[in-house]
């Protein structure tokens, strides 16, 4: 299995290298790792390093509450964070976080893993949600680190539980404890006889509650809204934007805020072609309009305080964005149909807080229905977040119990 894993990693690195001239993300992935070893910090404590690995920015958000809880318990720890994806490295600094050093994860070969672990000697290791790089886990284990996975979310078609589980499942046994989001994940671990699965919940709930407590007024948005509420399209993709086109054009009396996932000029231009009257956030325009386009990163989670309803993108591609950021403000949330990789989505659907739309006709119907159920939605959302908070504290308490 280790040979297979090594060959897979080397092949992946080779493919990324070959794609560089043609693919921007591959180019960022490769170039971001150049000169990695020369960029390592030199002022690290020898016995107090805690390492968090996050695939991307979403997993970083899940890790932050645990980082904060650990820092509160022991301010002397030195937290390092690694990312696999460029999106994490490009945007992590826009978060309020306690990390002491952040960098790319070197290609997960045996030699890179040995060098990395030998340099940092982490005493605690946290892999957030997924990305189980066997060589790094094995080297950390050899160096007597305690290894944990937090906010894990497993499905029965994962490689660990399918026909080839005998090849892949042993990787999970390198973890001292795996903290899962839901009962389904816990049952899957029990089926492979993993002994230390713990149902803890999703640390993003702590994160969005913190965000809600720290929201700031946005003078530009408030001037645009003029004391009204808006329907927000958050992290929208083109397919969702097209689906909303008819509703937005037929309701000029409503205010809309569109915060696209892709803020490239090409994509922003396509939105402006649909809505020539729209204004862009960064242009601080005084022109009156009922449509505001958020053309920068880092604003969205703060804007849901101004929403009467939110549509969250990614639900038509299987890459649903964070619905908890909106739901924490006790508003109705609409998503596309491909949400099965996100357990919180089905739970909130069952509670009536989230609804699925599949066509432009659905938009009108679901908005009317959910606005009629606003009181119930507020009650259910309040109860959900109250019942599922303090996940990070539970995890840290369990680790040190």
Helix content: 40-55%
Q: Could you tell me the strand content as a percent range?
A: 15-25%
Cα-to-Cα separation, first versus last residue: 34 Å
Biggest sheet, strands in spatial order? 3-2-1-4-5-6-7
Q: Indicate the overall shape.
A: globular
- Write down the Rg: 22 Å
Poorly predicted segments: none
Global mean pLDDT: 92
Oligomer: single chain
Largest sheet: 7 strands, parallel
Estimated structural class: alpha/beta
Would you count the extended β strands for me?
14
Tally of alpha and pi helices: 18
Structural features, described:
The chain starts with a helix and ends with a helix. By secondary structure, the chain is of the alpha/beta class. The strands form 2 sheets. The chain has a 7-stranded parallel sheet with strand order 3-2-1-4-5-6-7, sandwiched between helices. Strands 10-11-9-8-12-13-14 form a 7-stranded parallel sheet, sandwiched between helices. Helix 1 (2-19) packs across helix 2 and helix 3 packs across helix 9 (204-213). It is 44% helix and 16% strand. The mean pLDDT is 92. It has helices spanning 2-19, 24-32, 57-73, 86-91, 110-120, 134-142, 165-168, 183-191, 204-213, 219-225, 238-250, 265-274, 300-303, 324-327, 343-350, 360-372, 374-387, 391-399; strands at residues 49-54, 78-83, 101-104, 124-128, 146-152, 177-180, 197-199, 230-236, 255-260, 279-280, 291-293, 307-312, 333-335, 354-356.
